[in-house]
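Students often ask why inverse folding is considered easier than folding. One informal answer: many sequences map to the same fold, so there is more than one right answer. In these notes we will look at a single instance of the problem. The structure comes first.
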């Protein structure tokens, strides 16, 4: 798998393995940290833990990308949640 612009290790874990917990295996296999810049890096996959989630992400053409810069458009809702726009201009609420 190859990291894309604005992706974190957790984003890659969700996209390719189905859950964020898989990031620990990805970090171990690739000798990287959670904060590592992964854009353009070729990384070894962890096993798919949630095939249904991976299939859904692929059929929707989604690509989780949670890193944002200070000047990015990030919206904060009244309930304290944060909405982040992905590189495909989808909004994710966290």
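Output (designed amino acids):
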């Amino acid at each position: 798998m190859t990291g894309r612009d604005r992706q974190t290790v957790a984003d890659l874990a969700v996209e390719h393995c189905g859950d964020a917990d898989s990031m620990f295996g990805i970090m171990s296999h690739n000798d990287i940290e959670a904060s590592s810049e992964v854009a353009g890096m070729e990384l070894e996959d962890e096993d798919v833990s949630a095939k249904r989630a991976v299939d859904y992400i692929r059929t929707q053409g989604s690509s989780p990308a949670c890193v944002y810069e200070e000047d990015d458009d990030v919206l904060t809702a009244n309930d304290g949640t944060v909405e982040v726009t992905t590189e495909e201009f989808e909004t994710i609420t966290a």
